[in-house]
Amino acid sequence: MRRTLIPWLLAILPTLLWAHPEWKEASCIGVIDEKNAFALTVKFDVPSFLIGQLPKDAPIKDLDALMFTPGRLASSVEPGRRQFLAGLRLEADGRPMTWTLQSFPTAEQILALSARQGEADRYPVMMNAKFTATIPAGTHKLVLRFPEALGTVFTNLRKGMEFQTVMAVSKNEPGEFQIGDGPAPGDDQTVFTLLADGFGHVIPEGWDHCLFMLAMFLGATSLQQALGRSLVFTLGHSLTLSAVAVGWIGNPGAWIEPFIALTIGLGALMAYRGNATNRQMLVVPAVFGLVHGLGFAAAVAERLKDWDTGSIVRILVGFNVGVELAQMAVILASAALLWLILRAGLNETKVRRTLCLTIATAGFAVMAWRVAGIAGLV
């Protein structure tokens, strides 16, 4: 494992050393007037967005290449404008709305502001993009999504003097804003929404969740056994997710993410060693499921806080069924892929052990990366 980990660390070291030194989170102000006109102003680090990187991850050499290579910045602005508009999504009570772009930073404005900031502080270049939309009268809830390359966007949205919400809208997670007093969503809508969310939290968003399922599959002796472990894992994370949703325990913080990565590494390492009993390999996904449930809770509990207990139970069932369906899809796809690999004449034991060792290394490396992120080292 040491031989695998050292080259990986050497590969990412240059990125750590040359990453964006003074990055800032994006912010947003949205105002809805008495005529239901929605004006949105997003302030963000333009150069990092144009190279498709989160501000904290944007390498200085890539930013310099964008800014100082003749013609490159000018040619990047229009694709960036289209990408921003495509990634900015708005729903009013579940209905998609259309944005109109009012202004977006030009190449000349970006270079001018960077120059005024001086050589030592030329990054980030925080500038505004402005958009408008018309909200249907009587709208109760808005769902707002930002382009992934913005990362977390601190959003302040208000409607007159009646409704105002300040929220950190995370990458890949929609921001939900209540702008009217309306009835609770119908059971059929919420269950369907949470089922889709449950599936989406694994495929395509939960790549780490998929790795854990792959490790459980590789450590199983049959497809039936792997599916059984998936079900036990779902029961485990259902417990902690439900406990957070009904308020028995508080929402987890960022610390849960390194622990999730740790479960991936340990699960894959146990599958690699192959000396655990079937009972142990049922206990492991159950216990690790408790940890993963805390990771799910941060996204889901906020959506459940204003609903009654009966609705929460039905919604959690929908979400967990969605998660289980996605896990089954991962396991079945893994089984099909392994079958194709073995058809090529490769040794099954070697293939399984190689994949397990790769997943274990990735899990421990991601854990170290997330710990460093929480500590402010990256």
Structure description:
- 56% of the residues lie in helices and 16% in strands.
- It is α+β, with helices and mostly antiparallel strands.
- Helix 7 runs antiparallel to helix 8 (223-245), helix 7 packs parallel to helix 9 and helix 9 runs antiparallel to helix 12 (348-374).
- The chain is built from twelve helices and ten strands.
- A six-stranded mixed beta sheet has the order 5-6-2-1-8-9. A four-stranded antiparallel beta sheet has the order 4-3-7-10.
- A hairpin with a 4-residue loop joins strand 1 (26-32) and strand 2.
Q: What secondary-structure arrangement, pairings included, does this model have?
A:
Blueprint: H1 2-17, E1 26-32, E2 37-45, H2 46-50, H3 60-68, H4 72-87, E3 89-92, E4 95-97, E5 100-103, H5 107-117, E6 126-134, E7 141-145, E8 153-159, E9 163-169, E10 175-178, H6 187-200, H7 207-218, H8 223-245, H9 256-273, H10 280-304, H11 309-343, H12 348-374
Parallel strand pairs: 1-8
Antiparallel strand pairs: 1-2, 2-6, 3-4, 3-7, 5-6, 7-10, 8-9
